[in-house]
Amino acid sequence: MRDPARFWNRIAKSYDKQSKRKRENLLRTIEKIRCHLDPTDRVLDFACGTGEKALGVSDYVQSIHGIDLSPRMIEIASAKVTDRKVDNARFTRTDLFDAALEPESYDAIMAFYVFHLLDDSARMFERICELLKPDGRLICETPCLGESGSAIRWLIALAGKTRLLPTVRCFEIAELEASITSTSSLRLVESESDAENRNHLFIVAKKI
Ligand SMILES: C[S@@+](CC[C@H](N)C(=O)[O-])C[C@H]1O[C@@H](n2cnc3c(N)ncnc32)[C@H](O)[C@@H]1O
To answer: Which among 61, 69, 83, 131 has the fewest CB atoms less than 10 Å away?
Structure first.
């Protein structure tokens, strides 16, 4: 897909409604994330979407900065900062390689439902490592669609070829774990399949 931001802009409003509808899932995920955060943490939420997870953990940390390539997603997230009167969260339309993001400036980086959308995972994990402070944590969840049946994988590949949907990478669980640990100085602390959807993998990794 030539410009993925166009796709995410188009679906931003319905994506936001959908995540509010799945409130129980959202609260469960927020609870899991919070277990790995401290009140003094400066946190980056990479590919924050409409900001529900970032805002859900904002009262547990010192500050949270959400970034996303879709201006529409960022607009919706930023409006919530004002509506909910949150004073330690901000959202910016940018990507992970923005030079304004300073090396070793984050205690934790969240990345939910984005790794399968990016093609150069080695470069991405190196950058995540660069942005984390020593002992910093990567907290992420990724659909590992390589664990699905061949019909689903075939449909995903076909959808990507239409150029109407973003290209999706079908990680297997072991492959995702290996890409995190082999390409950077990140070490796995926790790796757990979601109780409802076994292919969705929640990972916490620490920078050593
Ligand atoms: C499936 S949504 C996940 C949103 C949010 N993290 C969540 O868990 O609800 C994927 C998000 O990734 C963003 N995205 C995709 N590629 C990106 C990139 N290279 N840099 C930043 N954001 C990206 C999209 O705009 C979209 O908001």
So the answer is: 83
